[in-house]
Write a structure and sequence with these properties.
Elements lengths: L1 E7 L3 E10 L2 E11 L5 H11 L10 E6 L3 E2 L2 E3 L6 E3 H7 L4
Parallel strand pairs: 1-4
Antiparallel strand pairs: 1-2, 2-3, 5-6, 6-7
Length: 96
């Protein structure tokens, strides 16, 4: 099973792709992207393209953490002009 997790920050966003195999969790790859001036859909598109060889688009689970209030499927970050939109994640990772 592939698990994509991210800590979305005002300056940088840290992503990790984890593998759950034989009851063990391991980090396959991690990357830091600048968040400033980005949109969440653009961050996800960059990530999937960059990690194409790891099959990031086939993640079975996704989890994103960000500082800000949750309104429906959207987090409006308090420390950045970035909004985290759950519908963008669902489009990018339909099986998760």
């Amino acid at each position: 099973m592939k698990i994509l997790a991210a800590d979305i920050g005002g300056t940088y966003s840290r992503f990790g792709l984890f593998l759950w195999e034989n009851r063990k969790l391991s980090l396959a790859v991690e990357k830091v992207f600048p968040s400033n001036g980005s949109d969440f859909g653009g961050l996800l598109a960059s990530l999937v393209e960059d990690w194409r060889s790891f099959g990031a688009a086939d993640a079975h689970m996704v989890a994103f953490a960000a500082a800000g209030p949750l309104r429906g499927t959207r987090i409006d970050m308090t420390n950045a002009g970035l909004s985290i939109d759950g519908s963008a994640a669902r489009k990018r990772f339909p099986d998760a």
